[in-house]
Write the structure tokens for this entry.
Amino acid sequence: MKKRIKKLALIALFLCFGTAYAQNIFDKAQVSGSFQIDAQLYNPDKEIGITDSTINGRKVGINGYGRINYSVGNFSAGIRYEAYLTPLSGFDQKHEGNGIANYWASYNTKEIGITVGNFYEQFGNGLVFRTYEEWSLGYDNAMNGMHIVYRPVEGITLKGIYGSQRYYWTKYENNNRGIIRGIDGELNFNETFSCMNDSKFRMSIGGSAVSKYQKETDPIYNMPENVGAFAGRINMGLGRFDFMTEYAYKINDPSATNNFIYKEGQALLASLSYSQKGLGMSLQVKRIDNMSFKSNYKITENALDINFIPPINRTHSYSLAARYPYSTQPNGEMGIQFQLNYKIPKGTFFGGKYGTSIALNFSQVNDIVRNQINDTILVNQKGTKGYKSPFFEVSDHIFFRDVNLEIEKRFTNKFKVVAMYMNLLYDIATIEGHVGEEKVKANIGLVDMTYKISTRNSLRLELQGLFTEQDKGDWAAAMLEYTIAPKWFFAVGDQFNYGNDIKDERNHYYTASAGYVHDATRIALTFGRQSEGVLCVGGVCRQVPASSGLMLTITTSF
Amino acid sequence: MKKIFLIIAATCFVLSTAFAQEKSSLPNVTIKTLDGKNFNTTEFQNDGKPIIISFWALWCKPCQRELDAFNENYEDWQEETGVKIYAVSIDDSRSTSKVKPHVEGKDWGFEVLIDANSDFKRAMNVNMIPHTLLLDGNGKIVSQHTTYFEGAEHELYEEVKKIAGVK
């Protein structure tokens, strides 16, 4: 009898361990994910130049994805399914297709992280390595390989990566693109050394090395099979000041982007900033020389980038202010940016009852100077070392300049205004490749007014004007939005190209949209016209063709 | 006999509660503070009180509006419920160095973190910003919301009060 009870007790104990353990597993297991569908129905619209032949039978474009992530404790795995049937207009047609685009499995603790499959990573500022994904642009240069992070002690981070990059739906095989390997290390003095834990002086240093291996097959040129790139960085801070700089060097890497010159590449990025309550300032400079770095030297399109060269200008959100966005010139540019944020305190003459926020921003980007190496070799001549570029000299060829002032003021607890003025110089020939076209000089002004009807209901009116003699001439835009928080929005708008030199092209681009939001789900329907333009996120840009029709977006996270 | 069963039952109870105790439902991702220190996302902490995590960027106007609205109410909210707000910037290296001057210039009172390559954003399956998560005192996600319309902060605060047990 006693034996039996003992046995029973043992079984019970096992069971209870078992269930406790199982319960633990199930409690911690989580499935999360997100979905998005962007669909557009295209209509012919003669006025804005869209005919049946432009649509070419593709009356419907749908881009969609689903991401599912499963995690138990420190382990997680997931997939990302994508379908472009057919891709929205303006997306590279190589997107067309469907299937599991990315998949991964990883184990992460505070000390160590290992990922196999697809992953995203950035070393420092990304000057020698960055992979990322931007759905709205159709950009994804994900790595497919292995990723390891190790943090042996507080403040020290070591990373190692290898693999190949995503190129639409084309699998890596037979040297159709390069293999990438890289390491990165970072040391944060304040975290690692206890004597500096609470120091007012902050410092961290880091360094990375990346190599691309692409087998030599070129019929004309003798290509370097291994292209190495190296970068070093320092971040320092003292009290209210912060300083950051990173320098990157790449060995000669002839490519279709740089016209097959055997020149080394260099990039320098630096910023100094000051911040205190109510006041912030920052100054950034950069110099880029022959820094395009792709895992296939043959392509020039927006894909397979190994590194990321950040443009250092303000990213504008209002439509006309964002009409002429700058994109990085990887073959060479020198830029500067200054930004001031100031909040005029409450209770002063200009501050009023609520305080007034002011933001002033200036940025300019010029070309670098390129001198002949000797009398017989032309600047940037194929198959040569290209040119000599004095480091501190700036060319007088201006690519881009933007001066803007934004003021934000709340007048009453119901009424708020944002006003902005912007002066722009835009070398459309270089940036958009419109060879021979004059630089666009534009003045842009806008006001954005919000009026709260009640706690949940509010109206917002945007009025914008863009004035220029070049490109398509003057534009005016108006948009009225009505929102019922937190679920509904309705908006109508029009962009009118009233100053176009060609009378027939003085078009209206009207839109009407409505949307519903519930928790992390958003459904939006837009009807109307979209003007031709450039859409940029984080320095990568996509040409958006003019279109007319119905657009539906559904997005959700869970 | 009874003793043995009691002991077993007791251990069983202790074990199951010990195992079932969850730390946080957030994934393990390392991002940075404004001072450049590492911040592990399993470490969002507020002594058992609710936490709001809001994804934003300098180029996102509705995000600014949402954070301004949070800022206007933050002192009152903290006093009433002890809620803590973390604003996670997904600005990339183009503008990470402008985040701190912007935050200080705007005089925002909450903690701001930098997710320069969107690692945390991706791990949380965030499609578009602004995207706001509400966590209870145990670090469990109670609700999430995308986009911001004027006045939506009141709705969020009602939920915060519910979790904090404040009427």
In short: Chain B touches chain A through 67 residues (CB under 8 Å). Residues 12-23 of chain B have pLDDT under 50 and may be disordered.
